[in-house]
Specification:
Elements lengths: L6 H15 L3 H8 L3 H9 L6 H14 L6 H11 L13 H6 L8
Length: 108
């Protein structure tokens, strides 16, 4: 189930997390395996992120912004994946658990 993308709140949280991480947007994008321009388009709201790419960026940022362990879940929820908020495995980056839970993936 997919909910509405809350673009303004999403953009504010992403921008704030990037600032608190103390690294450039390009560095986060590279570590997460997404393009700098893709991350930029998410911030401006011209494109909604896909689940996997956003999860990767959220995990990179969460590792840098230690004061906010639920950052990935919050970003995913604001991007419209709120049906999955709070339903993540104990380790948000646990890919094996994600593969076992088909509801974590957006229907194709």
């Amino acid at each position: 189930m997919q909910s509405r993308w809350q673009q303004a709140k999403f953009s504010a949280l992403l921008t704030d997390a990037l600032a608190r991480a103390g690294v450039s947007q390009a560095q986060v994008a590279e570590k997460a395996g997404v393009s700098h321009s893709q991350l930029s388009r998410w911030k401006t709201g011209t494109h909604r992120p896909d689940y996997d790419s956003l999860e990767a960026v959220g995990n990179v940022l969460a590792g840098l912004v230690l004061s906010e362990p639920d950052l990935t879940a919050r970003l995913l929820a604001l991007a419209g994946y709120s049906a999955h908020f709070g339903a993540f495995p104990a380790a948000v980056g646990d890919a094996e658990a994600a593969d076992r839970d088909p509801q974590r993936r957006e229907p194709g």
